[in-house]
Sequence to fold (248 residues):
Amino acid sequence: MKVLVSVKRAIDYNVRIQIKSDGSGVVTDGVKHSMNPFDEIALEQAIRWKEAGTADEVVAVTIGPDPAAEQLRTALAFGCDRAIHVKTEDAVQPLTAARVFKAIAENEQPAVFLMGKQAIDDDANQTGQMTAALLGWPQATFASVIELADDHARVTREIDAGLETLEVDLPAVITADLRLNEPRYLKLPNIMKAKRKPIETRSLTELGVAPAAMLETRRTAPPPQREAGIRVQSVDQLVAKLKEKSLL
Fold:
């Protein structure tokens, strides 16, 4: 069983985001980047399957400029067998990513295509669903538990009402939620070995994919600062303040 996992380069979640002075986006130059945390969870799941003998091969794929190879090195240090880098200097929107992943999946023929449920930079939560639609594969999103069999997967997913369990035929696209697992800490020897492993490269042209610029960012602005709170001396004063703000 082959498992394909997408990984995305995103601004590290510990970084305090700064808005560009012209409002055209966020500052990325000189800012620490890392693997999207939800993709890291998906990757951990694939490696666990490999260690358990459920998966025979794990292949990581990313889309982006040259520095995105750093995230593929991380994937190789986790234990991936191969890494594919689809190089582009342009910003990648969800539909373009889905078209690329469709082409890669058709070439690789995995039983499972694992993705993070969303990326923390745009929070779009679209790529997994679009990829499944383009491939014509079943999909199970927001997975917190995945049980694999020979020809199907049983997925417990997190929804607003609680938990839902689905059974999907393979091949399928599955997106990982936060509680699926806790990714491991990488060991230094594995990190050093990953630096020597080859990374396969592709281009959008080679895959027959044209960039789809369906979304346009008009302006980016920081959230408004929170107003300072006040301390009330009694329940009556609290009720009066809530009524004053039309909250009661």
